[in-house]
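Hey, I'm writing a tutorial for new members on how sequence and structure tokens pair up, and I'd like a real worked example in the thread rather than a made-up one. If someone can provide the structure for the chain below, I'll link this post from the tutorial.
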Amino acid sequence: MLSTRLQFIYEQLEPGFDVWDLCCDHGYLGIVAFKSKKFQQVHFVDQAAHLVEALRARWATEADTHFYPCTAEAIDVPLTGNVVIAGVGGQKITEILLGLQSKGHLKARRLVLVPHKDEEAFEHWLELWVGQWIGQWIEQPTEHSTESRLQDSFVGFRLDQRLSVKEGPRVRRVFVLNSINDSRVV
């Protein structure tokens, strides 16, 4: 059984496509996605090799599961379908997206992004990525700032939903972005 937050994230996934569970930790979300048989393939990614190896030991015999014991930015294959990044800070999500985008590997149909911290700053970065105002302007971008790099490099997605889910005493923000470029969608 998934936590309330993970169940909410799961409900944002688009059936019929791959699921990439980046920073997957123990892989609970990916396991439920795999067991549901609603998705083509499930990819588990985490820099903690022992966690990914434990998942591999349990699930590697399944043809539609793939395991990557590395940082998400180090993945060297296109990420298609649903890409979930949760449980890490907004700055880390930004680094992952920029790393994948710079290599041309971000071919996702849907992004489900759930920052664990730095949520307001992450909203600001999203404003720059997708060109929509979804919160208050935090600071003016400078030539060498992350914000300036994002404005030029992250394209092809639109923010379709800005949601929230209650997790204990906290309310977590959930951002769902969909591809606007059909050539990216697989």
